[in-house]
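Run log, item B.
One chain of 159 residues. Sequence copied directly from the ordering sheet:
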Amino acid sequence: MAARRSRWLLLALLGVMMSLLYGCTGGGYQYSHYETVGSEGWKRSDTLRFTVNPVQHYGTYAEQLGLRTTSLYPFMQLMLIVSQEAQPSGFCRTDTMNVRLTDDDGLVTGEGISHYQYLFPLPPATLAAGDTLRVCVHHNMQRSPLVGITDVGFSLIFL
C-alpha cells in the first residue's frame, strides 16, 4: 500500500514539474536584432537604432546588449551609452555601460575564435501593452572611429 502511494505521489510530482517547465507560455524573445557597424569603424557620432514593435503584454522585460568584435579592437573595455524611450507610456531611461572585453591578462573573454560574441544585461524594463520601444546605442570612447567592432545588437525578453 505504501509503495503504491509513493508511486502516485512521484507521478503527481513529475506532472507538476512538467507543467511548470512546459506550461509557461508568457516568456520568450519579443525582439532580437543586430546592426552592422561600417567597415571604416564606429564613429563616435554614429548612433545605432533599434525599434521594437508594440509589445502585446504589460510586464517586466529583460534586456540585453549584444556585441561582436574582432581581434582588431585595441582596448580591454568599451564605454557605451544606451538610451531608451517607450511610447505611449513614456518610459525613458539612459544607461552608461562600461563593458569589459578582456581579462586582466588581455585575453578575450567573448565566445568565438576570430570573431567574438558578448552579451551584456541591461536593467529590466516595465512596459505597457502597446508600447513601442526605441533604443539608441553609441560609444563614448576617445578614439573615433573605433575599429574591430562589427555588430551591435539589442534583445528584449518577456519574463
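Observations after the first pass:
- The first strand starts at residue 28 and ends at 36.
- The chain is about 15% helix and 50% strand.
Flagged for discussion on Thursday.
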